Each structure stands twice: as structure tokens, then as C-alpha cells.
Amino acid sequence: MPVVVKAEQHGDERGALLAYLEAQRGGVRRALHGLTEEQARSAPAASELSLAGLLKHVTVVESGWLRTFRGIEATEEEKKAEWEHSFAPSTEETVEVLLERSERIAAETEKAVGELSSLDETFVVPPAPWDKGGEFSWRWGLLHLIEEYARHAGHADIVRETIDGKGAFDLVFETGAMPEPDWSAFGGEAGQDDTGQDDTEQGDTGQDDAGRR
Q1: Distance CA 49, CA 156 (A)
Q2: 78-92 tens-digit pLDDT
Q3: Euclidean distance between the first and final Cα of the chain, in Å?
Q4: Are residues 211 and 35 in contact, defined by beta-carbon separation less than 8 angstroms?
């Protein structure tokens, strides 16, 4: 979870992979829902990670892998500069800007995957200090992106809960990504979230809609 990914059409492997990739992207984006710019850039947990930084980072990673999938390689200097600042949004990179960029890169990935004749098509990963590189399929590439997003979506959950106590399911229901179920069917009471807390007790945080998605 925290959202239900619908089953793919029979035999639609790329549809299944893209659906799970988008589900994980959504986890990172929703973590910014309802936060001010200051909150989005704060690092309240033990690490130096901020939610704005996490969104920028995963988008930079997806964009970089998409270049690799397509056989377009940046110079080592360009890649180093991009990586060094991937967790640090500039003052111009507001939540709105980062969300728009995330959606644009996601659309580029989905378009590229849709144009493939097969997920068995390959690309070459250049060698790196931690791996010898080699030839990989687009299937492998999509699985790697899902892994990357899922890891950082978990980080985003922790950072967001540290900011205001809201968990992933709270944000799923608030943004309409999935309707809130009838918890009474699972032994809970109507109006409670998955933790058993009454929704009305959470109160108004007074936050603006800077991360609303």
C-alpha cells in the first residue's frame, strides 16, 4: 500500500510496472500536501532530508535514468553537479515548481515506455565505482525506478509524520487518492482513521495548500 494499484489488463506488463511506479511517485508527492514552503524545506528528523529535497532528488534520478534508457549520456561534470544539488532545492524551486517538474518527467517516462516495441529492449549503463555497468533491459530499468521511489517514499513518510503527525493514509484520504474505507468492517468505528484516531480530533493545522496534490 498505501494506495490500491489496479490489476493490469491481461498481458500488459508495462502497464503494471508503470502503475506501481506512479503509485510510489504519488507517495512522495502527497507527503508535501498542505505544507508551507518552510515546512517542505525543513529537516525535522534525525537525517538532513527534507520533503522538498526528496521530491527534487527522485525527479533528478528518474530524469537521469531516462537519459540512460535512451542512450543519452551527460558528461561526468554535469552528472556530478546535478547529483551534488539533488537534495537541495534552490530558492526558485518551490513546491509548485518541483511538483510540475515531477509530473513532466513522469509523463516523459510513460511516453518513452509506451513507444517501446518490447520491455526486452536494452540500454547500456556505463561503469561506475560501485558497479561494472553493462547491458540491461527496460524492464530492469523500470523495476529499479520503482525501488528508488519506494525507498524514498518511506523516508518521506517519516519526515512528514515528524512535521505534523500525519501518516501516509491520512494524506491518501485527504488528497482523494483513495476513498477512506468503512473501518467498522475491520472492527473500528466510523470516522476513525487506520490508527483508530477520530478524524475530528486532528484539528485544523492552519497550513496553506503549498504541496496540495
Answers
A1: 9
A2: 888 888 899 999 999
A3: 18
A4: yes
